[in-house]
Design a protein that fits this description.
By secondary structure, this protein is mostly helical. It is 52% helix and 8% strand. The chain contains four helices and three strands; from the N terminus they run βαββααα. A three-stranded parallel beta sheet has the order 1-2-3, with helices on both faces. Helix 1 links the parallel strand 1 and strand 2. Helix 1 crosses helix 3. The longest helix is centred in the C-terminal third of the chain and has 29 residues. It starts with a strand and ends in a 13-residue tail after the last helix.
Length: 131
């Protein structure tokens, strides 16, 4: 897969879904090094190669490298699949969301509840049908 975007931080996708999808399919990728695309590369076990998006020579050299080295393509493809399973699988997403909720939302809700109830605001009382 090839996705070579030009831009910089704050421009384009944070981590392009197409690169994650390519990795999930076991396909190594070539991406630009100016945006969040590099975040889709596992530094410990590379699954893609980031290049200067302005350099057609870098793109040609990387394509040649992939064409000439089937073992590299297979290794990077396997690395990508493992990376997606370890980092982007749904269960991991749910686990991380739970951690974020526990860390940020629960304390904020408790502080808000304590703040409001201390001023006579939202107090919890049983529902009275007669009123």
């Amino acid at each position: 897969a090839i996705l070579v975007a030009r831009g910089g931080p704050g421009q384009g996708e944070a981590v392009p879904l197409g690169l994650i999808e390519a990795s999930a399919c076991g396909a190594p990728f070539i991406c630009g090094n100016e945006d969040g695309s590099v975040e889709a590369i596992n530094p410990a076990r590379p699954n893609g190669i980031a290049i200067d998006p302005a350099s057609s020579d870098a793109l040609a050299a990387t394509l040649r490298r992939f064409a000439d080295d089937a073992a590299l393509v297979a290794e990077m493809g396997a690395n990508g699949r493992k990376f997606v399973e370890d980092v982007f699988r749904y269960e991991k997403f749910l686990e991380r969301q739970g951690e974020l909720i526990e860390r940020y939302i629960v304390p904020s809700m408790a502080a808000m509840r304590d703040s409001v109830s201390g001023r006579g605001g939202f107090e919890t009382r049983p529902y009275d049908k007669s009123s």
